[in-house]
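Q: I'm teaching a short session on how sequence maps to structure, and I want students to see two examples side by side rather than one. Could you give me a first protein with its sequence written out and its structure tokens following it? Keep the formatting plain so it prints cleanly on a handout.
A: Of course. Example one:
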Amino acid sequence: QIISDAKAMEAEAIRSEEDAQKAYEDFVKETNASIEAKGKDIVNKSEEKAKAEGALVEAKEAKEAALLELEQLANSKAELHQSCDFILKNFDLRQTARDEEVEALRQGEGNPSRAEVE
């Protein structure tokens, strides 16, 4: 009976060792698969990050260009506003001077002898 018990214990130990070996092999496979998946995920995320950084650079450049254009437009607006203000401010004065000039020309047409003398 001791021999049969020893054989049974040996068989059980071999089964336990085989089960443990199988569990270890499964664990190694799962770990390797997980490492590979994480590696691919890192690569994908790195690519996404690079694309996002490129888009950020383009957006910043576009923003700078838009701000420059806005500044130029604001300067043009200020120049036009100043020019218009000058025209409006001096309109009455210029209109009066033109009216006086037209009146002087009319008076000159009405009195040709005086115009010839002068």
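Q: Perfect. Now a second example for contrast.
A: Example two:
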Amino acid sequence: PVALYIVHWGEFEVEGAAPGETQLARGAVLGHECLLRPMNRPHTIRATTETVVYCLDGVTYRDAVRDVMMDQVAETRKYVENVPCFSKLTGQQKDMLAQAAVYVEFEDGDVV
């Protein structure tokens, strides 16, 4: 099944991977590419010790991402409503602007 796996403990071997990328251990993330776009898994991964992994199925992952995005859109929409230069936009235009906006954080000293 399409899922993301995070290794809690144990070790895995990645068949067909480049040298130096054949061993996975605690904290490694497996399957994330398949959550982002439809694709076949690029490698076979086998447990080489007893293991425990955390698993997040694709449907739950997409639902969680959607929920976070909707929360961000709602927060951005509230902000857009109070920006003077957007006051002449229709509600639909403000909704579209809020959906298209990307939240970016900058550290002190970063160049924008």
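Q: What should students look for in example two?
A: Point them to this: The radius of gyration is 21 Å. Also worth mentioning: Helices lie at 32-36, 58-81, 91-100.
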